[in-house]
Request: fold
Amino acid sequence: MRLTKKAMGGLGAYFLMSAMTAVSLPAHADVVGKLKFDEIVAQSSACVVAEVTNIEYGRDEAGIYTLTTFSVSKVAFGDIGDTITVRTAGGRYKQGKISGVSVSSGTPIFFNGRKSMLFLSESTSGGAMEIVGENQGLFALVPSNDNFISMPSSMGGVTSVDVIIDRARSRRAVGNTDDLAQ
Reply:
């Protein structure tokens, strides 16, 4: 197969844009070890049940990021208002005529209307909160019944939200380091 000059020019422009995009976006290579439930609680300044109400994207010296706003329905612990904003690495971006998505391994992707339990810490970037352990402090509520939360089997599997809130509060109060399932 023979490529014409026009096709070669198009391929060249594609590779140039890809290279410019790759060079302009910082890579995220943070590695977070697997956390037990008690470690997630200990590293958290707040724990809430909340629903995604807004998603915005931005860029700063650290790279592309997503700001997700949640409407809080329950607070297990922490000084939290009716809404919170969570900052995560990666997101959508537009640079001139080029647009794309920056993905960071281990970073959750949120959708409007989705309900979750979030274990949060103060952001190192200021303003917004961060999820403990990248995505380890995030547990989705069961879509058909938001009174239940889907957790790894090592942490109890599908469990009542109120049970998890009680366990988080008790561990926070006494500094218990036993596994959740016990």
Q: What stands out?
A: Strands lie at 46-60, 63-77, 83-89, 91-95, 98-102, 115-122, 129-131, 138-140, 148-150, 158-160. The chain has three helices and ten strands. Residues 5-24 form the longest helix (20 residues).
